Amino acid sequence: MEYRLLGGSGFSVPALSFGTGTFGGNHPFFSKWGSSDVEDARRLVDICLEAGANLFDTADVYSNGQSEEILGEAIKGRRDQVLISTKATFRMSDDPNDVGHSRFHLIRSCEGSLRRLGTDYIDIYTMHGFDAQTDVEETLRALDTLVQSGKVRYLACSNFSGWHLMKSLAVSEKYGWARYMAHQAHYSLLRREYEWELMPLALDQRVGTLVWGPLSQGRLSGKYRRNEPMPANTRVSLGAGEGPDIPDDWFYGVMDVLDAISAETGKTVAQVALNWLLQRPTVSSVIIGARHEAQLHENLGAVGWNLTAEQVARLDAVSETDTIYPYWHQRGFTERNPLPTKLYK
Predict the structure, then answer these.
(1) Using CA atoms, how far apart are residues 314 and 337, in angstroms rounded to an integer?
(2) Contacts of 274 (CB under 8 A, 6+ apart)
(3) What is the CA radius of gyration of the chain?
């Protein structure tokens, strides 16, 4: 397994990490992701550790805390062998204060996650979304308190806009508080908006990218084929896909190139799609998920080899989409404002 630095920190994380949203399943939405119990989870953790993928990503909201509880059981007795990332932001109960990034909620949420995980520290603590109702200063001061107390090692954010992240970084610098070292962001061959503003920001500010949704909720797994019925019992068919609809013609055009490169490399479609991500600027780790062992073994096969520059260029070209303003205007001035994927390769 390759290990990479988390943004501008000296902390190394595996290029592939494991997302545990499939653990639990006692929730109307997250049950569509998966329902691994403790025994299943323990075996998946074993496979990851054997491969060197020792970072496990969860969230308090995943199955109302059940994902954290199951992960805690699965790693019991080997906490020193694993890295844990968990998140807080979203509502867990009807309590008016059980949501967002207030000092009250963050401290209580962190303590709840520690209890469910059965540990006394979290390696990466992530804000799951942006809270526009709480002053950024209050949020970051509370997070700095958690870092100084030893309950949290590093901070990250997720699903932020560019100005959300940049303002947060500026506030942390102003007061000397712990800063966001990573941005957990949605990024795949089918969702490349991250490159427009967030990737240039990450490059400039040395913020690592933790990629979620790298196979676009299974669309890039190789299960979806032109003129064939949608596979049953998948996240997309069950209504658990994220983001706007993806046009069929464009999607299957991407799949055609993935299929061709899969044949050239002898790798699966999913492995090709994941390897493309691993060659993008700022990417510290790609979070893979799996409902069963075979799927996990396949996804772990995305490392240890690389697509050629020509193959990457073909995937870049076929997955390119129209940009919105001001990005299309900025792309007209590439002499001084080159695309980050061109400048930093």
Answers:
(1) 23
(2) 16, 214, 215, 286, 288, 299, 302
(3) 20
For residue 143, the Cα-to-chain-centroid distance in whole angstroms is: 20
Q: Which two tokens stand for residue 260?
A: 């061709």
Predicted TM-score (pTM) above 0.85: yes
CA atoms within 13 A on the CB side of 260: 12
182-204 residue pLDDT tens: 999 999 999 999 999 999 999 99
Strand partners, 281: none
Distances (CA, A) of 106 to 184, 185, 247: 18, 21, 39
Q: List pLDDT tens digits, range 146-157.
A: 999 999 999 999
Phi/psi for 89 (5° steps) reads: 170, -55
CB 211 within 8 Å of CB 286: yes
Q: Which are the contacts of 102, defined by CB distance < 8 A and separation ≥ 6? A: 131, 134, 138, 139, 142
Give all strands (DSSP E) within 187-255, no chain letters. 208-212
Domain boundaries, the chain: 3-343
**What's the pLDDT score for residue 245?**
83
Q: What is the pLDDT of residues 157-171, one digit of tens each?
A: 999 999 999 999 999
Question: What is the rounded distance in angstroms from the CA atom of residue 64 to the CA atom of residue 92?
Answer: 7
CATH class of domain segment(s) 3-343: alpha beta
Please say if the pLDDT value at position 135 is more than 50. yes
Strand partners of residue 127: 88, 157
For 209, phi then psi, to 5°, come to -105, 125
Residues classed as catalytic:
62
State how far the Cα of 261 lies from the Cα of 297, in Å rounded to an integer: 20
Q: Does the bond joining 326 to the residue before it have cis omega, within 30 degrees of 0?
A: yes
